[in-house]
Amino acid sequence: MRMLLYCLKRQEDAGFDEFNGASFTGAVFNLSTTIVGAGIMALPATMKVLGLVLGVALIIFMAFLTEASIELLLRFSRAGKSASYGGLMGDAFGKTGRILLQVAVLINNIGVLIVYMIIIGDVLSGTSSSGAHHAGVLEGWFGEHWWNARAFVLLITTLFVFSPLACFKRIDSLSYTSALSVALAVVFLVITVGITIVKLINGSIAMPRLMPDVTDLTSFWKLFTTVPVLVTAFICHYNVHSIDNELEDSTQIKPVVRTALALCSSVYIMTSIFGFLLFGDGTLDDVLANFDMDLGIPYSSLLNDAVRVSYAAHLMLVFPIVFFPLRLNLDGLLFPSARPFHQANMRFALITIGPYRYNLLGCKFHSKHLGCFPIHWSNCCSLSWFHFSGFPYSQVSSSLAFAVSAIILFFS
């Protein structure tokens, strides 16, 4: 607590109120990091179900659908002079609408952050399931010790990575770590592409499936299991207002959104294609698990570790960008009439520390009792973002709102 308050005081001394606005590049990286989270690892498996042609087409479609939903958010935020997602829902549906949105953000983001901590623990410290133990990177390098156990690794990560980044009161302050996070996602992509090219030259990769293999009703319904992955892959709505509010030129928000979506779509498409090419029908639901075995090329173990470490580091840097709206909406839910929390250090510190403690406890509880519950919990809440973004429009144009909602409901 004292360290956090000290960091906040240093920010004030450095001139928090003298901020001149976020840059276009910083905003793009922050929005891109909001989009590219853990879901990237599930995309190659969607290609196994949908085939490359349909899979890539749906990724592009979801990018356009995300842009349309953000366009609705921004249009009606400007009209109602709303500075936040919760404020927009409050203008459209009153106090109940605002509270529902804020609770949805809390549920979604807490679930996402718990999942991130579990993945980081699995990658670095290993995991055991069905009587089999899968060694983590640290365990593989140094053997099994108390200091590379899951609980200790997550505690150190929280204290020395998450907590310092949580001290920042502006989302633009995370732009450099967001840029590094995107770079780490590109590292994974580059390694995957390189391995795939080597194996293509060796002739050890078969022709991938271009279209879905639908032979019966069961295989037809299986196509819809890819919908949650594709929808949640582009969730970023809860950070759009924060990024918009800090831009030096607020008219740049639309180009920021389009640039971020283009960047993320490119990474998604390349990851999906080359991940599926590399592992074919052996592609697992989480392609990271495929990098826990022999790749059939020289330096396979080194490449596997590089992929896993870069992915764990990527999630560590995504964590604060997802935590930012969690803290913002928790403050709005508990203290709706108080002054902005960046002007009240003690409240800011308490709102920051509370969720961190909950995430640590939730991560420990999950690993023993809940199975994949937070993943489904988070997915169900994420599907609601497209509905929330279209709700204000239903107050104006019922016919177009019905058409948009019909499309969204079909994919939900």
TrEMBL record:
Keywords annotated in UniProt: Amino-acid transport, Membrane, Transmembrane, Transmembrane helix, Transport
Localisation per UniProt entry: Membrane
Pfam families attached to this UniProt entry: Aa_trans
Superkingdom of origin organism: Eukaryota
Amino acid transporter transmembrane domain span: 22-346
Membrane topology label: Multi-pass membrane protein
Transmembrane helix in keyword set: yes
UniProt KW Membrane keyword: yes
Main subcellular location: membrane
InterPro entries: AA_transpt_TM (IPR013057)
Transmembrane residue ranges: 21-43, 49-74, 99-120, 147-168, 180-201, 221-240, 260-279, 311-330
UniProt-recorded name of the protein: Amino acid transporter transmembrane domain-containing protein
Organism: Salix suchowensis
